[in-house]
UniProtKB/TrEMBL annotation:
Species name: Artemisia annua (Sweet wormwood)
Pathway field: Protein modification; protein ubiquitination
UniProtKB keywords: Transferase, Ubl conjugation pathway
GO function terms (MF aspect): ubiquitin protein ligase activity
Record's protein name: U-box domain-containing protein
Superkingdom field: Eukaryota
Reactions that this protein is recorded to catalyse: S-ubiquitinyl-[E2 ubiquitin-conjugating enzyme]-L-cysteine + [acceptor protein]-L-lysine = [E2 ubiquitin-conjugating enzyme]-L-cysteine + N(6)-ubiquitinyl-[acceptor protein]-L-lysine
Function: Functions as an E3 ubiquitin ligase.
The enzyme's E.C. designation: 2.3.2.27
InterPro entries named among the record's database cross-references: ARM-type_fold (IPR016024), ARM_PUB (IPR058678), PUB22/23/24-like (IPR045185), RING-Ubox_PUB (IPR045210), Ubox_domain (IPR003613), Znf_RING/FYVE/PHD (IPR013083)
């Protein structure tokens, strides 16, 4: 007869109520399984602690190595085959190294592209990059690069590299709201991203759509209501360029966010996007 083994409550993730494989602690002091809390923070885009309901002012995840060793020992004593093996967590991104590269790029502008490429290599090699945005100054730095490195008819290599990193991070509303350069320059950043959409390569434009979508999430309704008709033309170009489904989905999310304000529905209709949108939706439905 199989004996049911009761898992100690402090070994269970408060979100999934499953045995934690990679326990991490957030700023409120509550420990969760990494996969569950990352989904809560970065996919569901919640800004509060699931247990205490306190607002989170940072999204740092601190590995709880002591608890992980206790869980591993308990699994060994109680027959490991009963549960999924407790995996060793992936090495987290080195926030100190990111901070060092950001500082290097600020102090020595001629090394900016080199530093950005190193940052890109680091973050693309990890699926745990979101937390590195907090406290490292990286997001603030990337926003400033896009603002300063964007000339009228030219997208710089530095801007291109910054957009690749931002595209990978899928920034949350919380990160944007905590970034003063974004809050102080929302319209300027919007114009910079639209400039990328006009003059960038197909790949660069695809990378720009992700931060553009995030930006609209934190803009005031009055600012959204006043957007120029150019944005609808650029969204239309995306649909006509056969870009990835992820890019098209992001562009549709932008459209949904902005057409509800001011005269934006009229601007959208006047851009000629209605017929293209209908064809696009038909294609999506029958894929």
């Amino acid at each position: 007869m199989d004996i049911k083994i009761e898992v100690p409550s402090h070994f269970l993730c408060p979100i999934s109520m499953q045995l934690m494989k990679d326990p991490v602690t957030i700023s409120t002091g509550i420990t969760y399984d990494r996969e569950s809390i990352e989904k809560w923070l970065f996919t569901c885009r919640s800004t509060s602690c699931p247990v205490t309901k306190q607002t989170l002012f940072d999204t740092d995840l601190t590995p709880n190595h002591t608890l992980r060793r206790l869980i591993q020992s308990w699994c060994t004593v109680n027959s490991i085959h009963v549960f999924d093996p407790v995996s060793t967590p992936k090495k987290p991104l080195d926030k100190c190294l990111i901070m060092k590269l950001v500082d290097e790029a600020k102090r020595h502008p001629h090394n900016k592209i080199k530093c950005l490429r190193k940052i890109r290599s680091i973050v693309l090699a990890s699926d745990r990059g979101e937390t590195c945005m907090e406290g490292s100054g990286l997001f603030k730095f990337l926003a400033k690069v896009i603002l300063k490195e964007n000339e009228s008819c030219f997208v710089s290599k530095a801007c291109d590299e910054a957009l690749i990193v931002l595209h990978h991070f899928q920034c949350t509303d919380l990160q944007l709201r905590n970034c003063k350069p974004v809050l102080d320059n929302k319209l300027a950043l919007l114009n910079a991203l639209l400039n990328v959409m006009r003059f960038g390569s197909v790949q660069t434009r695809s990378h720009a759509i992700t931060p553009l979508r995030s930006l609209f999430k934190v803009m005031d309704p009055t600012q959204i209501a006043g957007v120029k008709s150019d944005i609808f033309g650029e969204i239309l170009r995306i649909w006509k360029c056969n870009m990835s489904q992820q890019t098209i989905k992001a562009s549709l999310e932008i459209l949904v966010d902005i057409i509800q304000w001011g005269r934006n529905r009229i601007k959208a209709a006047e851009s000629g996007m209605v017929s293209v949108l209908v064809e696009l939706l038909i294609d999506i439905l029958f894929i």
